[in-house]
From TrEMBL:
Pfam families given in the database record: CobD_Cbib
Name of the protein described by the UniProt record: Cobalamin biosynthesis protein CobD
Organism whose genome encodes this protein: Pseudomonas taeanensis MS-3
Primary location class: membrane
Domain of life: Bacteria
UniProtKB keywords: Cell membrane, Cobalamin biosynthesis, Membrane, Transmembrane, Transmembrane helix
Keyword check for Magnesium: no
Membrane topology category: Multi-pass membrane protein
GO MF annotation terms: ABC-type vitamin B12 transporter activity; threonine-phosphate decarboxylase activity
GO BP: cobalamin biosynthetic process
Name of the encoding gene: cobD
Taxon lineage: Bacteria, Pseudomonadati, Pseudomonadota, Gammaproteobacteria, Pseudomonadales
Amino acid sequence: MSLLLSTLAGVSLDAVLGESKGWHPLVAFGRLAERIEQRLNPAGRGWRSHGVTAWCLAVLPLTLLVGLLAQVSAFGWAVEILALYAALGLKSLGEHALPVAQALRLGDLALARERVGYMVSRNTAALDASGVARAGSESVLENGSDAVFAALIWFLVAGAPGVVLYRLSNTLDAMWGYRNPRFERFGWAAAKIDDGLNYIPARLVALTYALLGRTALALRCWQRQAPQWDSPNAGPVMAAGAGALGVSLGGAAEYHGELHQRPQLGEGRPAQARDIERALNLVYGGVLLWLALLLLWTLFGA
């Protein structure tokens, strides 16, 4: 019962408060990670072994500290709840995505491009309305997996230290996991560890999206299209999500001045403004489904 209550409390805090507008622990962690990277990867000369050392220095002490506080502190229950709250990004996902959909509905393409630029790393300056809707929908589906469902899974599996380990690892992947001259060797460990931590959660998320949408199409897209995607975890999530929505995602996108020809995801018409909201509803519905299953497990399975 304590796991159920802690999970409900963490999710509720995120739903009410959202991401802190002032200081956030992940911002402080990001500054720490930058300093470690500057020391161990000067001018991009660090090797894989330096990346492993950097990951351990950044992640393990904080994970162990949170685990210790959760176990021995009289307020261990509060540590558990706050760790989950700090790791979740459910409300923040909606706060970023809904203004994109609203701008598209109002016909303000310039604002829509600007807003979706906060969500994705691709060049958004030349996107048409469908391109903006595609980028927004893809971001919601993928970030729903990374910033919401995977955090929930690792909290359910290993409590506060589990969710901290996952969230810090995911942050390092976002900072270091690039295939460019600076990070290709140094960031290898961060990328591979994040892939490993997300492997099972991503497939549970893909199944969740499929169950809440056009199930047969989502499963078919997952099977056929996911292996063509360059990310082993984003592929199943986004292919199943696009199939569940019955829209076409993927395709060409420009990243850092280079045009990437990405495989198609899903089937059907091009994405529209309302598909960003439909993607959000998949995430919201998935969270409610998981909480309901946790409730049933607590009452009848434990």
